[in-house]
């Protein structure tokens, strides 16, 4: 296996032209890739490209319309960011619950996205906030919604010579929260997770509501049937049944499909009755 460590996007693209036809893997944080090799769950590539020295891909910046996160920004940097905490609290909370401190200092947001796990901790918040993924390749760059970027477990629409360079988050002044249930209190893969992104009127009634859930389908799903029911004034105990329309959980080593269905509905009901109580009461009174 050959190893290459470019210092810039331009250097990477020049190298990629020389290895066409060979298999390759991109190494960012390596917190998922390396264990898969060690467990023989993934074949070793012909070429390993280590992108950790590409300074263009680090950091969090802002402009009037959006916040932009470099693909190599670590989960710990997202956890510490006041900007993310203040405007995208679901992502801040997801980063706080992400694995352990050693992993957070190594793992990257780009790696978490490209891993395309249906249980990925950052993904529900990114979906609910309608994040866009910037891909860079030999033919330039393109922006694609994260919900279109991931097409199945471990599968994305990224072309062989492309890499994720940035994540774009539109600034809409929304409130948000994140919930994760694992089999233990830390270092756990989610049995169920979800993000709720919403806006309210001065009287705390909802003006918008977007809910996404993970580990209950092959990709992150929008609980649109449930959120539409809530927005249309359906009482919570009736609206919660609409969750079933948008999920398709499976049995695996962490939980049964039925457990995932049940716990997702129960925790959503708790969240709306307690953490989002003021907004939901307005609709239950209609």
Low-confidence regions:
282-286
Query: Any guess at the CATH architecture of the domain at 175-284?
Result: 2-Layer Sandwich
At the fourth CATH level, what is the homologous superfamily of the domain at 175-284?
CO dehydrogenase flavoprotein, C-terminal domain
Overall radius of gyration: 20 Å
CATH topology of the domain at 175-284: Enolase-like, domain 1
Secondary-structure class: alpha+beta
* Overall mean confidence score, pLDDT: 92
CATH class of the domain at 175-284: Alpha Beta
What is shown here, in short?
The chain is α+β, with helices and mostly antiparallel strands. The protein has helices spanning 9-16, 33-38, 75-80, 82-87, 89-96, 101-106, 109-115, 123-128, 146-149, 224-231, 236-239, 257-275, 277-284; strands spanning 2-4, 24-27, 47-50, 60-62, 66-70, 132-137, 140-145, 150-152, 155-156, 163-170, 175-181, 192-200, 206-214, 221-222.
Would you kindly provide a written description of the structure presented here, covering whatever features stand out?
The chain is of the alpha+beta class. The chain contains 13 helices and 14 strands. Among the domains are: 54 residues, Uridine Diphospho-n-acetylenolpyruvylglucosamine Reductase, domain 2 (2-Layer Sandwich); 110 residues, Enolase-like, domain 1 (2-Layer Sandwich). Helices cover 34% and strands 25% of the residues. It has a five-stranded antiparallel β-sheet with strand order 4-5-10-6-7. A hairpin with a 5-residue loop joins β12 and β13. α12 crosses α13. The termini are far apart. The C terminus is likely disordered.
